[in-house]
Write the structure tokens for this entry.
Amino acid sequence: MAYRSINPYSGEQLAEYPYITDNECIEAIDRSAAAFNKWRKTELKVRSELLHSYSAELLDKKERCASLMTLEMGKPFKQALAEVEKSARACTYYADNAAEFLEPVLVETPSSKSRILYEPQGTVFAIMPWNFPFWQVIRCLAPAVMSGNCVILKHASNVPLCALILEELFRVAGAPGGLFQNLFITHSQAADLIGSARVRSVSLTGSNIAGEIIAARAGSSVKKCVLELGGSDPFVVFADADLERAADGAVTGRFQNNGQSCIASKRLFVEDAVYDRFMDLFIPKVRALRTGDPMDPATDIGPLVNRDAVAELRKQVSASLDMGARVICGELHSKSGDNFFDPMVLEDVPANSPLACEETFGPVLPVFRFNKYEELILQLNSTVYGLGSSVWTSDSQLMQRIVSDIDAGTVSINGFTRSDPMLPFGGVKESGYGRELSHYGIMEFVNIKTVSVFE
């Protein structure tokens, strides 16, 4: 199947691009290798100027970029604008801080004077998803390029226009040819790229299934991987929490990006003592969300990415209902259109049901009561995922205790889970490995070389 851009709101096909040939794929690798030989020797000042220019281009064209995002995958336009702005900030962050991150470290041992150097690896192969089509590319591209590498992008097949404008603006910003290339390639060609001797590492954001395939392929070629995979993040409200703020946080944490986010709050746990009070605050906020045209600034919930996504979510909900779950907000069949799934909240959800155990990619939220701390922790850690988590409490000792007990890459206290260029981001268990963002993120794309001079 070719790369097709189809508006999930209108059903209109916007564009179609054929796969490139095997020879064109080889030529792209050649261009990347040639570009790397030059780019690795460029001064950090030059790299920084490029990323600053790229950040400026993204901001200057943010309405155009956001529109493409909304048209291709249904993200509400106001959220798409925020994604472009965040992507630009990440470019600025690495442009301003990479020199410090990559500064050689001097170490004196009893037998030597040594230096630790941070050198580029080569070509980074980025395999990226549709749900944050700018941000997830940029958080790989910015540190990889700033540390002296080149990047080849295989974007999701339903957001080719986003992929093309990311490449176009990078070129307009002054990037030399071959430094960043978007390729419309097949899965077979992607496997060949991973196996190429000139591709040194792979960065994937995607599903667990994709992670298993990519990791196996990379492992057979002894390639380094950064994997950011799925999640089933808990959102925990203790009795002493600010319930109004927690209710607002739960709405944003679950329903932003139409609920299609790896770090969305996908399981809500509320302490029994405040359960009814919290739900009285929370449910009206969910019902107030406006569903409709994602280009309308007033829209909170747009369409899901396609009918397959709607069918999968409906299947998970139906199976959970059959097992005893109960709907307290929303309907199984949306009145808004074929690609819509209206916000839904359920309770009495069995612990072994799909909504409790699987990742749900859409605006559906199961709610669970809890009384005992130890039982809560068992529930929080019961899934195969470990990406993020959100905990709401005013008890400082409880904060320290639960931070240690939750098995996840991120714990957000009194706030919903989000990523920030200044903080490392990634998961544990089947949510992946490696870290993106901050100085830890740039370390994923360098060869940490030790140089020792013995006396």
